[in-house]
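Hello forum,

I keep getting stuck at the same step: I have a sequence, I want structure tokens, and every attempt I make locally crashes halfway through. Rather than fight my setup again tonight, could one of you with a working pipeline run this one for me? It's a single chain of 403 residues.
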Amino acid sequence: MRLRATIVLAVWAAGFSWLGCNALLGNESAVFEPDGGSADVVTGEGEGGPGESGSVDDGASDGAHDGPHDAAVSDVDHPCTVTTTDPFNCGVCGHDCLGGACTGGKCQPVILVNEVGSPAAIAVDATHVYWTNNASGDVRRVPIAGGATEIVFDGPPGMILGEGLVRSGSDLYFTIDDGNADGGVFRCPAGGCGAAGPDAVVAPLSSAEFVGLADGGVLLVSESFVGGRVGRCTLPCTGGLDVIAPSEGFPSFVAGEGDSYYWATLIPNGGNLRGKNDLISPPTDLVTGRFIRQVDIHGAEVLYADRGGGMRAISRDGGAVRQIFGQPTETDRFALDGEDVYFGDALSGGRVLRCNVTACGDAGAVIAGSQDHPYAIATDKTSIYWTNAGTSGAGGGVVRVAK
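Reply #2:
Ran it on my machine without issues. Output:
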């Protein structure tokens, strides 16, 4: 995946050199930078990325847990006096930082894992955070409250794990891409595969890139090459892949709801957002000439991360593009949580931001600053989780912060 991503970035950059070298800058510190003001407590219940229509990043997370400890703070045990520094009453009385510090009325991030490598896709359930590591070629997990890292799938170093990570039922789903036709979608028990290794769910696939989850237990899959396919199957996927689009130009992220499907491609035109509102009509272009990454469905719109252009939305039927967050960003992934969208920005020192889907202009709330290339994001009832991809195989990690 990293090798193909490098090639993809090079091809795209040739047509869009305006992004400049700033997109490569990061910061290895993981210290929160308060943006001032009192804490803004998010109360919406999160579905995680890619949001309401599917659960790429947090899979079967049912949002039922309250985090590492009960967020309902006892007034007797933790009386509310100084909300600027009290981790049990941070910003407002009763706002628990769930193990993090409180500075200036803002909960601080908790580093769950400091890891040499390149943490990428992320998923969350009631007890653990899961992620893929593209340097070590494996899938790992750590308790939400922190603790020892465990290996779910122990792949060889350099194994290419694609985009997306699905937690569903008792299992974890991910893609393996060997660059030929021997990859596919694979499954391990959430507690680990052990010596038996993963089970093939949809295989063989050529250049398996993405796996996500739509309503009804429908897996969404893409193959990223010229003439690649976009498809689906309903778990346990015994009938193989139902092809939605048979010949696409390096398709990657996919979102689906009912019989409507939308996905990003690299070619032609330097990148497109494509889709179809039924299974009969041919795909159409909604957006062209942009380096589009994750996509998702929110009501009557398709939300997408425009690498270099911020968070954007467009009607499912096409038309004018709507800016959600207008500052130039290096954003690949986001997570929907009710009416809020959380996303990373590897520019500006590395930030994680929150913005209402109706738009926040250039004034998104900074959840965390000084992050080393924040990448994939997931949410649950109480917290936001993300992977820091790091720089040149170093500085990566898995981070949590209370909402």
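The CA atoms of residues 72 and 94 lie 7 Å apart. If your local run keeps crashing, start a new thread with the error log.
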